[in-house]
Amino acid sequence: MSASLQGTAIAGPSLIMTGSTVNIRNRHYTTTSTYTDEKARNITAKIALGTGTMTSGTLDQIQLSFAPLGTTFGLTANVIATNTGAGMSLLLSFREDAGTGRWYLMIYNGTTASIVRDGIYLSINAKQTV
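RE: above sequence
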């Protein structure tokens, strides 16, 4: 890292230096008025939905083992549909396991048709406090 970038990062209110790593200052709310300011990093993933058919009314869950326990928040996900549009109607949500704190992505086919999973990907974004 250049000295000029490091100097800017140390002086900047939105960036925090940790050794030679530049982290983002993040404000995380736990109520509408309670927050903490923490160092954070982005977590991103592109995961294949799998193969085979997802029938109408099916709920799949994918464990997000890459998301560190207790320090991951602000998860969002999008479906990357195929060229023919397969996957556009899937519903996505997250759940945090009450016993382990592990995050799961839930995928629901609420349509009246089956969807072929092949070629459908999930794009996941999150923050990790460090």
